[in-house]
Amino acid sequence: MLRFVLGLGLGILIIAQSWAILYLTSLPNQIVRHLNFPVYLQIVIGVTWLILMGWGMMGLMNGKRFRVILVISGFIIYSLLQIVVFSQADYDHQREPFLLMLLGFIVLLMIATKYKENFTND
Fold first, then answer.
1. Angle separating helix axes 2-25 and 39-61, nearest 10 degrees
2. 13 partner at 20 to 30 Å CA-CA among 38, 47, 67, 74?
3. C-alpha Rg value of the chain to the nearest Å
């Protein structure tokens, strides 16, 4: 069940990240000029995250759930840092508590996964 949930979560992240990259490539120049975070850097980072998410999905297929949890938690930390550093609108800052709660849940999931692995390998 945990494997299914992790695969579903990672699959949703892969789809969302792919959509974000396609959206960034179609932005008009009038909007691109006013962004705080350079679009080309966002595209490079997005492709990097897609590669890491693919690496996590391959790990999930090989039974390495911790790799997926690590990729998802890294993406949440990256998203939280991006909001803290680059956002200027209040509605962006209102997402911080949700991301912190999500990160806390992922950390608990990482601990539970390692705890289970330690006792099943004995």
1. 160
2. 38
3. 16
Say whether pLDDT at 106 is over 80.
Answer: no
Mean pLDDT, residues 92-101: 75
- Summarised one tens digit per residue, pLDDT across range 20-44 is 889 888 888 888 887 777 888 888 9
CA distances from 112 to 66, 67, 106, 117 (A): 10, 14, 10, 9
- With residue 64 as reference, give the H or E element that holds it: none
pLDDT of res. 101:
83
Tell me the C-alpha distance between 14 and 95, whole Å: 20
Check the CA dihedral 98-104-105-110 and report its sign. positive
Whole-angstrom Cα distance, residue 51 to residue 26? 21
Q: Give the SS3 label for residue 121.
A: coil
